[in-house]
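#structure-requests
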Amino acid sequence: MKFQEKLIRGTLIKRYKRFLADVKLDNGEQVIAHCTNSGSMKSCIERGAEVYLSPVNDPKRKTRFTWEMIKINGDWVGINTGNPNKLAFDAIVKGTIPGLGNYTTVKREVKFGDSRFDVFAENDTETCFVEVKNVTLKEGNFALFPDAVTTRGQKHLKTLMEVKKQGMRAVMLYIVQRSDVEIFAPAEEIDPNYASTLREAVAAGVEVIAMQATVTPDKIELSKKLPVEL
């Protein structure tokens, strides 16, 4: 996924009200950027860190920029939660995610029951629903999810179990937007209920795939599949 417009460099002053961040651009201007990440952003928030913003040309938007990434310990971490959905959709269309290929129809935002899944895919032999989550939390060499308690995430897992129960394929796809981790696992200490629900879902036949993304100011691309430790 290449950025359509050149990103703008700055340094983080502070994040506040969850969805806003003050950033000082390289030209000295201080701006407010929209932060799409509603989580705690633990392990990927640092005042004074280098950041990149994408310009927004929508006159209806109150903020003129979207916060895309932050440099932590020399590595870029992608914090825009909308990008993993784009990455997942494009990769499933192209068949570049191991085990998620050969689909003739791929759609975004398809309803199932009272939930809406990020990706729907099918071919002559199977129907598949995929839920996508953005992962930025790091602990040691582990990428962890979630970084805050998520009842919505638990609901998605339970609905994926219902998908599987009805004879379709159900996939929980974690997109890890940082390169300094080697294994994916649920964040047991932050949300034990989510961790136990994830294990329950796997036992019920829901598949878990964790894909690592390489993040740069020019583009974000999926690089490799990470082992999953439940």
